[in-house]
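[Meeting: bench + compute handoff]

Bench side (C.D.) handed over the final construct sequence. Compute side (W.E.) agreed to return the predicted structure before the next meeting so the bench team could plan truncations. Sequence as handed over:
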Amino acid sequence: MKEKDVKLVNAKTNETPQVLASGQVDAIGAWQPISGEAMKGLAGSKPVYTSAKAPGLIYDVLAVSPTSLKARKDDWVKLIKVWDRVVHYIDDPKTQDDAVKIMSARVGLTPEAYKPLLKGTKLIDVAEGKKIFKKGKGLTSLYGSSEIANDFNVKNEVYKQAQDVNSYIDPSLTEAQK
């Protein structure tokens, strides 16, 4: 398939399993557990590409309004400390099964179905977060990854104007961690 043969179709994430099963599209872009539901709903479907093959392609982040950041920065710094503890709890073999039980219940999967999904999820603790918040090009930097996504979105008319990535990435909460 050539790039020009690909047509992007907008769909709500929670509706992508039905869109794939309908035959209206050949593929969907979705994350777990939605992508897993889509594959269950269409016999023979399989992943074409997963973000696990490109670490840094997708960063999940905590987004906070500038007003809240200014008014409650100390609280947000505390939240980052809790996040660091959560990541270590999930990654620690001694506590991972309990973490999986909690997370799987949240998304309506059994722990047995959820646990394999951890292989495709890269959770970043504060130490690694400090490295990712360094300005740079490419997928090893949040700035570089965001610029790649920005370029893609403009090229594919997801939005018309390029975004100022630097204006909405603020490493101060991560940098405040000791």
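W.E. noted at the follow-up: The chain has a mean pLDDT of 91. C.D. will use this when planning the next construct.
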